[in-house]
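User: Okay, second chain of the day. Same drill as before: sequence in, structure tokens out.
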Amino acid sequence: MISLSDARAVQALLRRHGFHFSKAMGQNFIIDDTVCPRMAQQCGADRQMGVLEVGPGIGVLTHELSAVAQKVVAVELDKRLLPVLKETLADCENVTVHNGDILKIDVRELIEKEFPDMDVVVCANLPYYITSPIIMKLLEEHLPIRALTVMVQKEAAERICAEPGSRACGAVSAAVRYYAVPEILFDVGRESFLPAPNVDSAVIRLNIPEKPLYAVRDEKQFFRTVQAAFAQRRKTVVNSVSATLGIPKAELAEKMEAAGLSPQARAEQLTMDELVRLADLLGQA
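Assistant: Same drill. Structure tokens below.
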């Protein structure tokens, strides 16, 4: 078994399989031997649980996950990596690799088929360019998963985990908070990857509760409201929502004031409870 933390050994492995990195797919493989063990240990899996991995690359994280979980199912988009994974994961009998696009496959069906009667968590090193779409797909589909532990660009990690009511909060922060309780676990330097990206990364975990965190009258209305409120974040909620959804400013300001919300507030100043209240208010309107 070659050392997947040895850059030269990894390059030789890839050359042997005729593999070349794809910028379009955002391929950066982990070569730091301290990162993946930490991710595997902190993702919440144990020997009675299943792990769904997105984008295993050359299998560095997959190896660590196979040591802590009962079963690992890895979904890899790039067909060129399948023979590489067959070699690097040859000694991992509890790992199954699926070739497919996580954004297009029926993840619920995959989980039900591969992990019967098992609690499931997601653990992955996500490509920077599709971080939010993957996270939101896994959350929006209300899948039977307990947590998502993912490595993302550090800036994205800070945005995703930002507390509503803080300046760093954006639409994605509020959307994630609706479904889960996020936390940043640890930072990962750019030198931990091959090839090295131009930015640092961070590992975050989104803990998904058994029951919804917030009671909204209309989930779709909540997300429309969040998008509208943050669409013009330098403006007040009244101005941004009015411009986006076409609600008269005076009418909106009056309704917000009656609901105990400040018409002068910007979206980043609203707590989750206030965003929920605003969504319910607009739903009634």
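The radius of gyration is 21 Å.

User: Thanks, on to the next one.
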